[in-house]
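Step 1: inspect the first sequence and its C-alpha cells.
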Amino acid sequence: MGRIKCLIFIVMSLSLFCICCSEEKKAEVVEQQPNIVWFVAEDQSPDFFPMYGDSTISLPSLESLAQDGVVFTNAYAPVPVCAPTRSAIITGMYPTTLGTHNMRTYNAYTTENQPEIEIPSYSPIVPQGTKMFTEYLRKAGYYCTNNAKEDYNFKSLESAWDVSSNDGHWRNRPEDAPFFSVFNYNICHESGIWKQGANELSVSLDAIQVPPYFPNDSIIRHDMAVNYSNLARMDAKIGELIDQLKEDGLYDNTIIFFYGDHGGPFPRHKRALYETGTKVPMVIKFPENKKEQDYNATFLNFIDLAPTVLSLVGIQPPKNMQGKALFGKYKNQLTSKYIFTSSDRFDGMVDRLRAVRSQKYKYIKNFNTSQSNVLAVKYREQMPMMKHMNEMQAQGTLDTVQSLWFKTPKPEEELYDLENDPYELINLADNEIHKDTLVHLRNVLREWIIETNDLGRVSEKELINRWLVNGEQPMVSELVLTEKGGLVSLECPLNDATIIWKRPKDLVWSIYKEPLDTDIEFIAKAVRIGYVDSAILEYTSD
C-alpha cells in the first residue's frame, strides 16, 4: 500500500512538474510576443512637451506615459515632412535609397499630383527585398492595425495590415492574438494651426515663450497657442486609449511608442533640416514599465523603428534594412555616431539639401544656394504666422536673426555648434577654428551619399522614366500553381514579391507562408512595392 501511495505521489509530482513547465513555456511565449501600440503625433518638435522641459501646458496622459517609460532626447525623422518619413518608418530604409525622398510621389488624395511641374502620382520601384515590415509581424501571428493614415509615398500593399481604416483597433483581433496597433493624430498637423485657429485656447498668449527666430508678437503667440491647444486635444485622445489598454488588462505587457512624425508645424520647423524640423519627441514604455534609465540620449533615426520592433518580438530583422535594432533579441551592439537627414521636393518646390549631425555639431550642404529656405509652398501659406512673416520680410521689419531664414543666396555649407547654439543661428562654416570639423563632417556626408545610393543625385523625371513602363507602373507576373500530394504550392516569378491569399468570403488577405490544402477554395495574387498587383488566381477544389 505504501508503494502505491509513493507511486501516486510520484505521478502527481510529475504531472504538476509538467503543468508548471507547460505554464512556464506559455509565459515564455507571451513574454516573447509583447503587444505593441504606436501613438503618432503629426508635425511636432520636442520643445513643446513637458517631458522635454516645456512647462507651458500640462499633457497628463503623455507625462504619465513618460514616467512609466523612457524619454529619448536624440530621436530624428530622416526628412522634415511626413510622406518620405513614413516610407522610412514602414521599411527601415532611408527615403533617399528607396526613391521616396520627394514630397510627395504617390498621391492618394487626388488624381493629379504636381501637374505644374509635370510630376505625376507614382510609386517608386524600391530596392530588391524591400517590404513593409508589418508583413513580418503578420507572418509571425500578429494582428496588425493602422488607424488610419498611410501616406507612405508609395501605394500601400494589402499584405501590410489586417485593418487599415478608422476601425483599426486591437479590440477586433482574434482571441489571444498578439497585436501591433498604430494610431495617428491629425489634430496637431500643420493645417490644425489655421483650422483650429478660431477655437478656444488652452493656454494664455502671455504664457508662450517665443524662440528668437520668430517675431515676438500676438500673431506668432496665437499660432503657437493654437498648437499647444491641439496637443491638449491629442493628449486627451491618447489618454482614452491608454485607459482602454488598462481596462483590457493589456497595459503591462504592451510596449507603447509615442513619437512625432517629424518636426513642428511652423515655418523653419516643417520642411527645414534644422533641429526644429527633424528632431522629434519619442517615448517608449516597455513591458512591466521596466527601464534602466528615464532618459536615453542614443541617436535614434526612424529607419531604426522597423528593425527594433521586429527584434522586440523575437524576429531577426532582414539584412537589407538600413536601420539598427535598438532593443530586443537582435539588438545591435553598435550605436549610431551620426544622424543623416535630407530635403528635396516639397509639393511644387524643389530644394536639395543634405545634413549630418554628430553629438556636438550639425553640417548642412545646400545644393541650390540661389533658393531661399523660405520655399513658397502654397499649403503652408494658409498659416497666419507664415503670411505675417512674409509681410514683415517684404517690409524689412524682421530683425537680423529672424531674417536669416529668408537669406538669399544661401551659404553652400553650414556648420553649427549644437551645444552652444541650439537654434542654429551662428554659421561656423567659414570659421578657421572649426575647419577640421567642417572637413570631417563634409566627408562623412559625402561617403553616406555614395554608400546609401542617394537618389537625390538623379532628377526626379529621370527616376520616373527608369521606373515606369510607358508611363505606367510595371505589373507583377502571374502566380505559378503546383499541386502535389494533396497540397497547392504557389510561386511568383518576381522573387521578392509577397503572395497573399484568402477564401472567397474572407475580408482580409492572409500572407502565404506554406502550401495550402487542395480542399480549400481560395483566390491569390502577388504584391510588390512599386508594382501593380498580379492577376488574381482562382483555385477551386475538386
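Step 2: inspect the second sequence and its C-alpha cells, then contrast the two.
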Amino acid sequence: MIKQALLSVSDKSGILEFARELSQRGVRLLSTGGTAQLLRDGGLAVIEVADYTGFPEMLDGRVKTLHPRIHAGLLARRDLPEHQAAMDRAGFQGIDLVVVNLYPFVQTIQKAGCTLEEAIENIDIGGPAMVRSAAKNYAHVGVVTDPADYPALIAEMSAQGGHLTERTRFRLACRAYSHTAAYDGAISNYLTALQDDGTTAPFPSRLTEQWEQVQSLRYGENPHQSAAFYRDSRAVPGGLAAYRQIQGKELSYNNIADADAAWECVKTFADTACVIVKHANPCGVAIANDVATAYHLAFATDPTSAFGGIIAVNRPLDAAAAEAISQQFAEVIIAPEILPEAVAVFAKKTNLRVLEVPLAAGHNRYDLKRIGGGLLVQTPDLLNITADQLKVVTRRQPTPAELTDLLFASRVAKYVKSNAIVFCRAGQTLGVGAGQMSRVDSARIASIKAEHANLKLAQSVVASDAFFPFRDGVDVVVQAGAVAIIQPGGSVRDAEVIAAADEQNVAMVFTGARHFRH
C-alpha cells in the first residue's frame, strides 16, 4: 500500500500530474528543492525533506536526503518485527514509493566548454543512494526512475486499491539498478578519458556501455548458437535498432546484421537509392529518379545474389516499387516509410519482413568488435569522399559524368568487405568483387559477376577500397572495360600503377582515404 512517497526529480516532465494523482489517493508527499516548489505551486500539500528529517540541507545541497530517517524508511522490512520495532523506537516512518531521476550529468558534459568542476557538481549522490535503497527493498518499496512509467503506475494503483504488485516493484527495481549502472558508467567513461593536461582522450581507459534487450532470437549465425538483439540505451537517430516492423516473420540474427549493412549504405546517398545486400555485402546499388527504377537497376547488377537478399531504399516505398520487389524473393524490405498502397501489396507475402526506420544522419558512438578475451573499439567510418578531395594523378582527366560515377562507386565500395572492387556506370553498380584475399582476385570476380548478369563494362568506372599493390589489378579492370579508377593511393608502387593507367589512357584519381571493412 502506497501511503508515503518521496519525489525528487531533475526531469520534471509529468511529475506534477503524477503527484496530483498520488495526493488524490491519500498519499503523503515528501519532496526537495525545486520539485517541492513545483508541487506547492501546483496546489499540492508537500513536506520538505529538511522539515521531515529535522536537518536542513547543507554544503550547497550536496547533503539533503542522506539521513537515517530517509534511508531507514526505505530499507526497513515491513515483514520483520525487529525492523518495525527499531523504526518505532526512532520515531521513523516507512517510505513506500521513491520517485527519483538523477542530476543531468550526461547532458552537462555534452555541452560545449563544460569544465571538470561543472561535471563534478552534476554527479548525483543522494539520488542514486535513494534509488539503490528502494530497489534493494523492492519487496516493500516502489522506485520510479522514468517519467514514462507514471501513467501505468497510477492505473495499477487504481486497479489494486492503492497497491503496487510485487511483480511491478521487482520490474521497477531492475530498471532502477540499470539506471544507476548507466549513470555510473557515464561518469566513469568521462573521468577516465580525462588526461593530465586537461584534454580528453578519444577513448576512456575503462569503457562502460549499456544495451537493452529487445528480442531473444531463435538462434545466432547458425542454429547451434544462441543469440539476442540489444538496443543501445542511448537512442541513435536513424539507426536500424529504431525499426518498426510492419509485417512478416520474426527477424533473425543474420537478417538484422544484413539489414544494418543495407540501411547504413543507403542512408549515405542524397539521391533516391536502392541497396541490395547479401551476406553483409552490397550485391547491387543504384540511384535513379524513383524507387522502382532504382530497385530494377540494383537488382540487375547480380540477380543471382539478390535472391533472398535485404533491400533498403531511402525514400518512401510506393506501390510501383512494392510491385517490382514482390516479383522476386526477398527476406527484408527497409524504407523510411512504407506507404499504405505498398503495405497492401506486401500483405500478399506474409513471410516478407517489412521494416520502417526513420531516416536520420545519426551514427553509433563506437564500432565494437569482440576478440578472445578483449574488445576492439573504433570510431565509425563516417568519411564520405567529395569531389574537392580528389587528386587526378594520370594524364587523362575524368569527364564530369565519370567523376560523378567515381564518387558513387567509392561510396558503394566503402560498404563492401575488403578487398573490394566495384564497377559502376550511370549510377548503377555493374559488378562487385568482395572479401577476397587479393585485390586482383576481387577485380576478376567483379568482372565475372558483370558477365554473368549480362552487363557490359565498357565505359565503366571502378572503385577500390584500398590502394592497388601491383599494376595487375589495374590491367584486369581496364581489360574488362573500365575507363576511370578511384582509389586511395599510398602504395610504394603508386608510380607503377599510375603508369599502367597512363599506358591504357585511363583516368585515375586518388582519395587519400582507405575504407577497409572487415
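Step 3: confirm your contrast with the notes below.
Residues 5 and 340 are 47 Å apart (CA to CA). Residues 166-191 form the longest helix (26 residues).
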